[in-house]
Amino acid sequence: MYILMDLDDTLLNHKKAQRSASKIFGIKHQNQIPQYSSNNFEDLWNNTMMKYFKKFLSGDISFEEHRYFRIKELFENSEMKKEEALKIFKKYLILYEESWELFDDVIPFLEWCKTQEYNLAIITAGSKKQQNFKLQKMGIDHFFNFVFTAEEEKKSKPDPSFYKCVCKRLKIDPSKTFYIGDNVEKDAKGALDAGLIGIWINREKKDIIYDGIVINSLNQMK
Question: Do residues 7 and 134 lie in contact, with contact meaning Cβ atoms separated by under 8 Å?
Fold first, then answer.
């Protein structure tokens, strides 16, 4: 039996890492960012990220280009060269990677899955290279048989065809397959619409109605 899982904010605390890294990055470059404010830089960073990440997911730009355009817009420098922007982004990336950490329930859950002989795979919107690196750096890559990314499959969540495509490639029955993710719309409902058992891991205990299974911790899956 397969359990399919999201990565960011399901296994790895992405929001915390991004918040920590962007705060330090903003302070270091505040004199170069016209709209910088200690009160709103996190929102500015996130909004710019989402703007170009959506373009990446739609196939309009590459993953590297989405980083370039983010810095170019934040610095409000239309003449900035790609090489310079990526060099600046690298400074943020180092801070971000240094802040990566798993949620406390992840390792116990993955080890439990191994004892139960569940097969595990990742479905993620991130780039293949970066998401594989996250799994490797966190020391959990050996738990997963496959990693499916929007970049590679040319599909993105919550498109039901993304989930159906993965199930077809794994030769598994969607109706007997669990999918666990932190985003109720993109993860849980998307999987549910594709015929999977969509499980919403509501770590922040948000007050949102979801017709499927809701958990607050991976420990509840045992």
Answer: yes
